[in-house]
Structure formats: structure tokens, C-alpha cells
Write a sequence for this structure.
């Protein structure tokens, strides 16, 4: 039941067509959320600048292509579409099924991201700076970067600035301090967010990566390091969750 | 907003005292659950036979006594009151503050349970049988037993029937097979639910206890054993959660 | 030794063919369970409505086909046959080897379940409602659904109602509250059973799934979440154990 | 070397008193950070609105009192002072040693926080809403609340709105949606941030607490739940780290 | 039902007082284990040389004293009594309540063992050698030593022969190689059983101890080390389980 | 240096060909173990009845074949040869390279064991009984069985006697109680050794297997269950270590 | 800004072309490390004798070949090049792309190491002795050995000297005690460093390997064993990190 | 048997007093290590400059005092004595029992170290620099500092230089780069060794501390961080093991 329907029901009561008692019955069992279900979704998209997002992993290429088609059909709005954890096969299916946007769609094999850019509007107020420790962390960084861009943010990046060569990081302090939000991506010991957190006043979203071997335990060492960061402006998302970090950052950057 | 209030609002619309538009505004933001908030609680209590329950741990004796007083004052119904994880100090405060029910209240130091029995109505359809492996598991078993009783169930128990002396368990097979629900409590290797589950057709609620040392890891060994039970009628609750097991069992026993 | 053999032995004593002393010797070492070995199994099947079940994983397709043939041959009863964790190769072998039931057998590739339906008798008293959080949890949900059906239950399902969009769940409250048992399946943070448990009076069987990545640790995060549920009508089975949840639910639904 | 000293050095070069070569030598080995060491700290305080903070745990009451005295003496600025993880003994020592601010200092035994309020200036742009699941989570919530206040934020709170009674949370949706940043505190299964994250567009800082027993493993269950949240606007800080959550929230609220 | 009662029943059949059919009914439901319940216990004690054992932890001193009295009263046999994980208070209560054996009872505060020696018969065939790595492992070693002695074994010990000073161990090779069973006790890295296992042909029972700090994780490091021993004659018991190791060793030593 | 060489050296001293001082120098730095290096190995083989063993995993088929050839060449003794964790390719290489024993060699694909039987001498005093819980545990059971046989033991086995159908185990009590050593193999909850340990007086060597899924954590659940066994005659070896269990059992069976 | 540029700036101040104030501005924000960025790198290489190192894992063969070409082009110095975690495909690409050094380059498939030897200068003062426990540890040992050699050290090795055959180790005591640094590599229980540490006075760098199965948990058992070593001259690097151990050893051997 | 005794034995052979055969018998069973047992210990002390060390934890004050007395009595050498993990009570007992050195003995309550300085000889070649991250890490740092001093090293320290304020560390780069060995102590995320390792060419011994709360897991987060350090000159010792780090550093500093 949407607002219009609710209005009609109440008008019927007002005009005597429907008794108060019967209206009570209908309203009592009405799923509350139904009232503004679509609106909530709509509002979230408007406020957070969320692109339409599909988590590709575990879906067939046909399914993903179908969902994209449905998105493009039903939305008058020109929101960007973002598919994460995808592969070349999914990309081919998406392009085949949606020829209208084939030219606007790109596949990034390193991070497994597909983007369909339909809007280049910038809704984030400042710059999101994405910092990563090693070259192996770049796939996660790229997922974060593309997500942040598709959500309407200006993004800068700073790669391969691990803490064992601290001068590489210090050289780029200007870039860091001018960002409104910093996303900090590191595997192994996950020490980068502590150092970066101490250098900037902005909120730092830390992303542990599964890069490493042995006692890195698939990213657990980095995760624990980040949760125990001695810098107090650091919060953490799941291992390898570049997408999530960009969502949080984008959500902050709109404030 | 309860049903009566909703009726009044709609009558106001019906009589022209309130416009349909204003009613829409009020209803649109009305927290849905508010409509039947009290009722839900009421219904749950009626259906599940839940006694009023207070988790004593982390509350001062004064706070617990005050909550009990409030329960006794506001409820015309004569529901039993159950306080778990309590101690002698809390018991003294409860008795002092609620002289009217002092005689009906009892403290069980082994399990730290306080009961205020105000109803002896049996609402469970069958018998809940509580089986425990070792003497050290008895505190958890007692918490389960008292909880099940306060919720209106007939309860039997079978203590100290660990699997290393399987004959002790087999001797009491009749008791086991005649139960409608079985609660199975064990520490150390937590093997009892698998054996019991194979002997009965009833659902078995398994409770791992923190009894043990070394590689029992405070109940983790028993918990894992129970989650991996080769008997397919076994489900599991948290370590030492005798209360929870009795809630689940009671909820089943009312079906 | 079955009942007839025991009778013969005692008749021999009665007729003086066997001395009491010798009978004592024979009976003293008699494996007690041997008396009713077959009966116990028979009784369990009758009471719990268990279909014949084969755990396919780790068995060759020939082995599975052979077990099915043996089941179909020896059982006059028309019980359903259920094979879990199977694949297309096993399915082909089962069909080839059991042509008589080939039309009654189906393979569900998503969950890896094979069913041979020989009875559509409903023995469960109410409806089992299967609720799952995300689309990736559906394979586990399907295993639960097919198991519950093969065991003679009416089953409904509610998929993709994760807690981050709580309105989707609230919209279907009627379905939830009318179920006699609820099976609640979720990966990632495993929060669904707590919310569902608070909405219904029925017992909730929670199934953590291995869906997720990074700090989901193959379902451990969801498992821990469910074991620590603040709703007191929730009990838990092993990660991805849709079959086990349906067994427990079916066993409750027969009470 | 501060800015003035650098100026003097360069003036000496300019006036010929020091050769360019010698200045190179001195500047080459000059610790860079020394230049703006004090300023950086100053800037961080100004920008982030950080009160002066002392982590009380592991320090003697005399040490804490001494640090407070030093803070009060050297700072012309009227920044608030915050001492976390303190006790009554530390509070007494702080009051004795700093009589000038004794009236402005308060001790909150539940959370172990001492505040010395010297400024009531509000520097945060919006409201930080602190939501907690159970009454046992309130100490951590209080640490977050006092930290956020001392850092110049307007703060609202919403306690005891755990997910097993989802209606309690939905009733207060207005409070939630009007906040600029949400801090979400929960022990046990840690499901609250997922539900809250789905209801609001603001960033949600999740704090797992060590509340629980058995398989909560001192907050690990809640921590994992939060890291795996299916709501994409959630990031996480360390277990029981109410202080850290408030720092991150405050840092966002100033953007 | 004991052997005599079974004999009476069969005599009744033999004499025609009881029909074969009725005897079948009684025997069919007779709990099998009841037949030889006492005997089994008796047999186990005779065969394994088990002393009567009480696990003192979690029992009150009154309870332990009462159990001891019951043991001494009912047993004509002169078996040794062993109480593990006890303290001085329990010892006092045991002595007070059992004056007859007060002189025969001893308390070993290091290991918390109480012994009541009533028999010095040696039933083990060879020598059990107890080897421990560091002085802090001696409490566990003492528990093993006293248990083995009370169960009728000749015992030798070799303390403080950790692997970082391998010569200390090699000096005593004769003692090691002449033992029939070796119990090997070590905390920290738990390497001793691997070295000892390589030096002897006898079975080695390894006991990890909780001695250590930091990454010893309360004995987990030692436990894992022992489970992964490259010596193939090593098996392992629980952390700090000196009693269990001695039971296994005693049971082997009687073969 | 062997005993003969030592004798020659001392004869040289005795005859004046070598001064005492020079002999001191040679003996002082003589690696002690060198004296009886071969003998120790020889003795171990004789006493423990160890067959020659090769751990196949991680070795090429050529390497394994070469080691076998060397064993067969250098040993006059007719010891059995055992290769564990092997595959069909290794088996082919072994047969090709060692035609003389090709007929005596067998490959068991289930367990990956290759045996070359050259002696059927029985050196173990009693029977080793191998008990396993489920059909999936049979590969580990087979490794144990073949190892025990190759080391000269009489072996019996009892498969598929898991604790959820306790009657299956009780039926075979005679087989269990007549064994001199029991090897007990189980995955999932690992409860079998506790039940078996309570039924027999013999030492029980427990082997956890990696059979299971979800919270079995690759055998950890079974391992913990066995380490916490409430039966005191149980000791444990590494997960899936059928070979190790048979070594320990064989070593006991020779006592 | 390098030293020359700094000199130019200061010359400009000296000559009056640039005011002291403006120079302060430029220098104040100058990234300090920029001054001697190249030098630091240069110094590290000179002092530590580090070969140029490429971590091959996660890089394409083309990328690795390109990096090697760049190294060879830009460096007048004749430093050795080391590529770790590589494979045959990378080796082929490296040879193709760098024909000038094709003859000097070698690939070691066991450890996945590629070396390009351009200098045979020995810069380490003593011998690094690499000791490993089992044949399966040799790949890690080889990585350590080649790394140490490429960094200019004399290296000896001692393989297959596990602690269960302690005589094998004692035979080679001379080799051990004459080393200046010992690298000790072991999987399974990781006991070797404790024994070796007790035999030598030199620092021992312990490397746990992921060799083992079951409760070795991919090297965790060995790692914990080494961290808890009772020998006080032992420090530890990550699981399978032969490269890291050789770096530490090389760095010590240059002192 | 020492060298002299061996000489006597061989002289007896040489002179015909002892036959070669009998000498073989005596030498064959001679514990090899006995030859140089005392010497080894002596050598280790001389080479490694180890003070006499007593681990105080778990020993009574009387025991420690007695061991100290024995050390002082038997040693002509004037080695320093070091007691770690001690308390005031142990210190009092040591002073009472050893009045001769009472003035030379000191107790450091922060770290629980007692030193008896009898020699101020410096045997280490360079400076050991001890760097720690936070004030709470100082107890562990002090244990390392006093151990290193007692073992004859020049020691410098740098406290409270955590990575969240990187400028504090960079200011003291000279101190760091002039050290021959660096000990790096940090709790929480344990990031300091990675940063320090990148700044210096010397070997860095990393010590994780148990400082932290929540997801620091008693030092595990710091330990994992250090094991995964991206700086290749870092090796690690056990959590809180300041003593061990100083032993390793001292052993290196003597090379």
C-alpha cells in the first residue's frame, strides 16, 4: 500500500463508504513497511548515491545479464551500474544482452569489476584517497576505486606505499592530507592504516587483504592489526572488501 | 497505538473531525509494531508459557528487586517469575522488597536460579527429560530443569550417565523414550547427545558445558562435538545455556 | 538373538533340555541390543517419518546405485528415498540401476539432492517454513526443503529476506507466524534467526551457511552469531546442514 | 627545529653568514617532522576536536594526576580533558591534584570515564546517535557517549533495542534517520548494526562488546558478525572500544 | 538383575513356576547392562588395577569425604584410594571423616593429590618412567607418578631434562630404555616426546602442560607439537592430564 | 665407528701403536651415536617389528622406487616394506623397478597404501582390533590395518559402528573385549573412543579423521572430543594418522 | 628534491634571488625523505648486501621479465638478481627478455627460485649453516640457501636431521658449532631449533614449514613450537619464509 | 667422565692394566655428552656472555634464594646474576640469604627483574637499541634492557615512539641507525618493527607484547603483525619475551 492508496482508504472512511471498524481491520494487518517500501529504497539511492550493485560471485552469467536488463528497463534514472566479483564470461553475457549500453560498459579483469557508466555526476563533496601497501593489494584497491567512482566521487590513489619504506608514504603527504576520506588497503601485517591515521585528520577506512602466506592466515593478521590500530580515526571492514570500504567512504563523503 | 486508539482515530476521520490527509500523515509514520506491541508480548507469553525472566548477571541486587516488584505489580496474571545467574545477595534483596511472595520464592545456589512460583499450571503436553553426563554438569542441568518447570512443563531428569559407562544410560532407556523432548547436557567431549539421539525419536536439544580443562577450551570441544553429531535429531544451544535449552524445549512441548 | 530364538531357549529350559545354569551363561553374554536390532530401526523410521537417506559425498555412483536398489528391493513399505550431496553422475547411475522408479526420481543440481518419491503422505501436523537470508543461501535452503518434503511435511519458503532490508521480512510476517516450525538459513553475520525468533512463537532451527568471504571463515561467523542469539527459541545445527535442520524440524512437526 | 629557527638559518644564508653548502648539510639531516611537530599535534586537536585524552588503564593514580596537571598548565586553550578506563582511586587523585577544576570534573563508574569539562562548544555539524542492544552494553555506550560529547558533538542515545524485539528499534526510526552518524553497540550475536545499517543512510560505526558467555568468546562472535554485515554502510572498531567509535564518529561529524 | 537373580528366574522356568513366554517378556525388556553392571566395574578394577579415583575439583570437601567413606565401607577389597585436584581443606575433611585410614592418607600440595594407600601390591609388569622437561612441569609429573603408583606400578622419574640441553637427557638413556612404558611431560614447545620417542622402543604417552606464556596459549603449543611428533611411538592425552597418562600407562603395563 | 673399529683402536693403544693421548683426541670428538648408529636402527626394527616405511606424499614415483630398491638390496633380513600416502603412479614405478618382488607387492587405492610382504611372521602377542565409526573413516582404518599387519600383528576390524546406533557396537562387544589393543577411528564428533574405552580394559588409541564438514574443521572437532574423552584408557594421535596409531598399537602389542 | 636541488635553492637564497621567508615555505612542506630517498635505498643495498629481489608470486611472467630488464639496465653495479616463488614460465620469459645474462641465470624448480649471478663476491664474515628436519622441508631450505648465497654468504647445509633420530644431528655437531649463524627449518612439531639452539652459541633463525597434515594446521604447530622454544638464542620468521630467514642471517653475518 | 678420566682409562689400556675389550665395553655405554657436559655449559657462558639466569615465576622465594646462594658459592667467576619474573617477596629473600651481595642487588618492580651486578665488563661489540611503541610496553622493554646490560652490552632505549605518530620515531633516526642490533617492542597492532626495519640495516628482533584489549587477544594481533612484517630484517620472539629478545640480541652483538 502506497501513500496514494492509504489516502484513498481514508477518504473512503471520511466519506462514509468504509466504516472505521473495517478500516481498523485492514490497517491493523497492513505490513507497515509496505507503505514506504519503494520510497525507502529510492531515498537510499538518492541520498547515498549508490549505484545499482550486483554481487557477481555465485550467479550465472545469464542471471547477471538478466538482472542488468531489468535494472536498465525499470529505471528512468540514469544511475550507474556496478557488478563486482565478475569474470569475462559474465561481461560477455552482459554486453550481449544489453546492446544499448555496450559501449558504456567496461570490464576490469584485475578486480573482476564491470561498470556501466550512465552518469558522470559528482555527488561526493571532497576527494576519496585510496592508499595501498603493496602491488598485490591493487585488485582490492581497484574494486574500491571503481565503486567510489560509480557512486559519484572524485577519487585519487596512492599505490605501493608500504610501511617498510616509510619515505614513499611521507613524500605524498599532501595528497593524503587533502583527502576528505581515506581508504587504506594492506595485507601482511596491516600496519599502513595506523601510520596513515596518524598523518591525517580525515576518517580512515581500513581494508585488510588476504595477501600474504603462512601466518597471515588469509588476511587475519592484517585484520587484527587494523582492529588494534593505535590511531583513533580508523575503522575497519571485512577482508578484501574494497566494495564495502568505498560504500562507507562514499556515504561519509556525501555528508 | 493500540487497537482502541486506532479505532478512535478512524472514527475521528469518519466523523469529519480529522481530515484524511492528516490521518495519512499520522499513520504513515506510525511505528507499525506499536499497534500490537503489548499484544505481541502478551501472545508470546501465553503461547510459549514463558515465565517472566530476568538475567541476573551484571545487574545489582537493587535493580533485580525493583524489576521483580514491577512485574508483580503490573501483572494481573499469575505468571511465575524466574531469575537466572543470581546469587544469595540478590535473593535477599528480592525477598526484602517483595514480602508478599517471599514464601513462594526459592534460591538454588548450585545453578544461581531464583524462582517465584505463582502458578503450578502445566501447559506443556508431554515430559521434558533432562539428561546430563557428569556431576559437574548438574548446575547447568538444574538451570534447565527449573526453567522448564517455571514455564509449565513436567520434567524428569537423568544425571551422571556419561558415555564412558554406557550401561548407566541404557538402564534408563524407558525414561528417555517416553519423553516428548530431551535436553542433553555434557561437557568434555560432548558425546552424550549423539548416543541419546540414536536411542530416541524425540527432538534432542544439546547443551555443551564449560566443564573440563586443557583442550576442552571452556566448552568448545563439547560444542563442536554436538554440532557434528551423527544423530540427525540433535540441535544445539550456546555453552552452559541451560535456560535457552529449556526455552526451546518448552516451546516445542507446547506444540 | 531375536524374540523367537529367545523363546526357543527358554522352552528348552522349561522342558529340561537345557539347565538353568547353562542358560544363565548364554544369556549373560548375550548382546542385549541384538534382540530388537531390526525393530529399533523399523520403529525409528515409522515414528520419525524418516525417508531412507544416503549421504552421497565420498561414495562412488555405483555404490549409491547399489544401496538404492537394496532399499527398493527389501522394503515393502513405500518410503521416499533421499540422496544428499550427490551429482549428475550419481543420478545417472541411480536411474540406470533402478528403472522401475526412474520416473519418480529427480535431481536438483543446486543443492545436489536426488529424490525418489514413492509416497505423498503428509505425516507432519503443521507447516515448516524455511526462511533464508540471501540468494547464495538457497542451495542449503533447497536441501532443507526437499528433505522436509520427503519426510512428509508441508513446507513453505521465504527467500532473500536478509536483515539489512528488514521490511522484506516484516511484509511476510503472516507466513512466519502461521508456521509450526521455522528453519532459518543465513550466511555472513547470521543475524536472521535472532530477528525471526523475536517475531514468532514457534521453535526456530538455525542453519549457518558457508556463504561469505574473509572474516566469515567458511560459516564460523554465522555459526557464532546464531549460538549467541538473543532470541530464546533458537537452536542451531552444523554449517550448511540443511538436511539436519529438516530432520530436527520434521521430528518436531510430528509431535 | 621550529619555523623561527628555520627562518634564522635561512636569514644567515641570505646574509652570507652561512654558506649554502653548510646549510645543505644541516638541513639534510634535519628530522623533517621536527619542523612542525607541535603544530601537527595542534592542528589535529583543532580539526578533529579531540579532547585531551588519557588511557587510564595500567597507569598509577599519581601518574594520571600528574599528566592532567601538565595538560592544564601548558594549555591556554580550554580543551576538555577525558580519562578512560579509570577508577574511583584515580578520580580522587585527579581531584586532589587539580583543585582548580575539581568542580568541573566528574566520574562515571559504569564506564570508568572521568571528564573535566572546560568547554561546551559544539563543533560537530549534526547529531551522533548511539544505539545499543542490551542493558549490559551500556558501559561501552556510555564511554562512547561521553567521548563524543567531550569532543564537541550533540549526542542522542537509544538503549536496549536488540534485534530479537525488532519493534523496539522500529519505534525509534525517526531518531535514527535524523542522525548524521550512528554508533551501534552490541554484544552476543552483534546483529544490530546490520539492521540499523539497512534503516539509515548515515555511516554506521559498529562496536562489538565482550558481553555474552560461552561461544561469544569475549566479543569475537559479535566482532565477526559486524565484519560480515550485509549492510554496506557499516565499519567496525575493536571489541569494547566505545572511545574509538566516538573518535571516528566525531571525526566524520566535523566534515 | 544380578547373576543370582537370573539363575532364580531360569530355575523358575525350569521348574515350571514361570512359563517360557513370561520369561521372554521379562528378559526382553531387561536392561542388558543391569545383568553385569557391578561386575563390569569389578572387572575393570581387577584388570586395570585402577585405584578408586575421585576428581576433587568442583566438589565440596564434605562431598569428597562422604564418597571416601562410602568407598571404604563397601569395599572388602583393599584398593588404594586416589583423589586428584584436591586441596588442604579437602584433605582435612577426608582425615576427619575417615579416622581409620588417617595414617595411611597423604596430601601432596604441589599436584593437589591425596592418596590413601591400603595395598602395596605391584601388578604392573615393568617400570613406568616419567620424564619431564622443566621444573614447572613437576606438578603434572607428580600427579602422573602418584596415580601410577596407586595403580600398582613401579615408577621411576627423570625431571628437568628439556631438549635445549640434550646432554642431560642422553646421560640417562639407560633409565629410559629400561622402562616398559614412558610418560613424557612438557610445556612450552612440547618437543621432549619426539626426542624421547626416537631413543626408546617402548610406547611413549605424551602430556602437554599449560606451562609457558604468550604463544604457548595455555598448553596448545605443546599439544600441537606432540600431536605432530615425528616419532611414531608417541600418543597424546589432554593438557595437564597427568592422571590420564598414568591410567593409559598402567593399562599398558598390565598387558 | 662401530664396535669392531673401536676395538681396533683400543688394540692399537694396547699394543703401543697409538698413544693414549692421541686416542683421547679421537674419542673425545667422536660422535657418540656413531658407535651404535646402525645398531640402534637395527634394534628398533627388531624390537618394534617396524616394517621399512616410506611416506610417499611429496616424493616422486622415481624417488620412491629408488628407496625401495635400496631397501631390498641392503637388507638380508626379510622385513616387510610399507609405503603410505602413495598412488597408482608410484605403485607402477615400484613394480617396474623391483621386478623380484612384483608379485608380493599390492596397492590399496582407498588408503593409498602399498605393501611388499616378505615375511608373515607374527610378532605381536595379541590381537589389535580396529574400530571405525562411519564408512568414510575406512581409508584411515585401512591404513592402520595394513600398517599393523605389515608390522607382524594379528588384526581384526569392526567398521561402521558409530555411536548414534549404539546397538551395532554392543553387538560386537566380544570382539572388542578380546583385543589386546584397540584402535578407534572416528570423524565428526569423535565420540566413539569414549564409548569403546568404557567397554574394554585394553588401551585405546584414538584417531580423529578429517571426515565431516562445516564445524568439523577438518577433524578438529573429533580431535578435541578425543582429547577430552571421559574414558581414562584413551590416548590420541594426529588427525588421519592411521599409520601412527598402528605403530603405537604394534609397539604395545609386543610388550 | 635531491641534494643538488637543495643546494640550488640555498644558493638562490644566498644570492638574494629567493627570500628567506619563501625558502622557509618551500622547505617546511618539503617531504624530508625526498632528500635522500635514492641514497637510503642505495645504502641499504650496500650495507646489507641485498641482491635485487623480486617476489614472483602474483606477477605475470611478462611483468617479472620487465622488472629484471629494468634492473639490469639501470644498475652499473653488478648485483645478483633473485626471483622467489617463480615457475618455469617466468624463467622462460626472463631468459628471452634478457639474453645478455641468459647463461648466468638458473631456475631451481623445487623451491621456485631463479638466480642471475653477476657477482661472486663474499661479503658475509662467516658461514651460515642451514639445518632442516625432513626431506619435505628441503624446498624451503633451498630458498634460504640460494638467498643467502646470492647475498654474498658462504653457506653449508645439513638436511634430514629431525629430532626423532637425535644421533643424526649430534654426528654433525662440528658443522653446527663452526657456523656464525644457523638457519633451522622444520615442519610438524618444529622441535629442531630448540635442540640446535642448545648445541650452539650462534644466533638461530627458526623457519616453521607448512609440512605436515591434520593438527599441523599448515605450519601453525611448528610456528608455536618455535616461538615457545626453551633455547634462548632462537628467533622466528613466518611459515615457509626461507627467504626472510636468509635475509636476517645475511644481515647478521655482515656485522 | 671428563678428559682426564678418559686419559687415565686409555693409559690403563696402554699399560696393559685394562684389556681393549673391557675398555670397549666401558666406552660403548659411556654417555657421550658426559665428556664435555660441564665444558659446554662453561663455553656457552663464556661465548654468549650469559649471566646466570633464574626464571622466578612458579618458584618460591626460598627456592630462588637457595639457587642464588649456590650460584654465588660455586662460581669463582664474577658473572652477573639475573632473576626474571620476580616480586618484592623474592627480592627480600634473596637479600636476606645473600648478605655479601645485598648492596649489589637491585629490584625493578615494573618488570619484576632482580639484578646482582658483579661485573661491569662490556663484551658486546656495539650498541643494542631498544625501541618500544607505547608506555604500557615499558615493562617488557625494561626486562630486555636489564637482560642485555647484565649480559655485558651497551644499551640505549627509545620509548613511546608508536607508528601513529611517525614523526616521533623519525626524530630519533640517528640513534636507530647507529645501533648494531635493534630490539623492537610493541603491543596492539605490532606495526613498529616493520617501520623500524625499513629505516635500519641492522637485524631487528621484534617482541610482541600482551598490551591491548579485545581483538588484541593477549598479544596475538601484534605477534601475527610481526611475523608478517614486510621488512626483511625482522625476526620474532614470544609474546612479552623481553628476556629472550635480549638473549638473541646479545648473542648477535658478540659476533
Amino acid at each position: 500500500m502506497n501513500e496514494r492508496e492509504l489516502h484513498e482508504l481514508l477518504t473512503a472512511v471520511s466519506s462514509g463508504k468504509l466504516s472505521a471498524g473495517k478500516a481498523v481491520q485492514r490497517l491493523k494487518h497492513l505490513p507497515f513497511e509496505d507503505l514506504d517500501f519503494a520510497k525507502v529504497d529510492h531515498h537510499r539511492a538518492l541520498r547515498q548515491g549508490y549505484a545499482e550493485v550486483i554481487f557477481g560471485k555465485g550467479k550465472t552469467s545469464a542471471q547477471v545479464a538478466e538482472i542488468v536488463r531489468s535494472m536498465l528497463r525499470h529505471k528512468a534514472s540514469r544511475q550507474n551500474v556496478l557488478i563486482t566479483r565478475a569474470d569475462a564470461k559474465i561481461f560477455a553475457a552482459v554486453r550481449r544482452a544489453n546492446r544499448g549500453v555496450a559501449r558504456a560498459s567496461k570490464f576490469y579483469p584485475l578486480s573482476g569489476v564491470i561498470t556501466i557508466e550512465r552518469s558522470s555526476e559528482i555527488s561526493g563533496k571532497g576527494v576519496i584517497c585510496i592508499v595501498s601497501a603493496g602491488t598485490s593489494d591493487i585488485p582490492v584497491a581497484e574494486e574500491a576505486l571503481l565503486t567510489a567512482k560509480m557512486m559519484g566521487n572524485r577519487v585519487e590513489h596512492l599505490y605501493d606505499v608500504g610501511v617498510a619504506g616509510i619515505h614513499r608514504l611521507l613524500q605524498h603527504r599532501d595528497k593524503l592530507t587533502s583527502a576528505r576520506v581515506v581508504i587504506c588497503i594492506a595485507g601482511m601485517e596491516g600496519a599502513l592504516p595506523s601510520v596513515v591515521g596518524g598523518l591525517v585528520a580525515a576518517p580512515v577506512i581500513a581494508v585488510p587483504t588476504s595477501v600474504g602466506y603462512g601466518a597471515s592466515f588469509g588476511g587475519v593478521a592484517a585484520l587484527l592489526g587494523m582492529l588494534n590500530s593505535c590511531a583513533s580515526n580508523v575503522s575497519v571492514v571485512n577482508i578484501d572488501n574494497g566494495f564495502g570500504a568505498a560504500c562507507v567512504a562514499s556515504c561519509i563523503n556525501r555528508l
Observations:
- Strands of chain C lie at 52-55, 81-84, 105-108, 113-116, 127-132, 154-158, 181-186, 204-208, 234-236.
- The radius of gyration of chain C is 23 Å.
- Residues 130 and 170 of chain C are 15 Å apart (CA to CA).
- The longest helix of chain C spans residues 61-74.
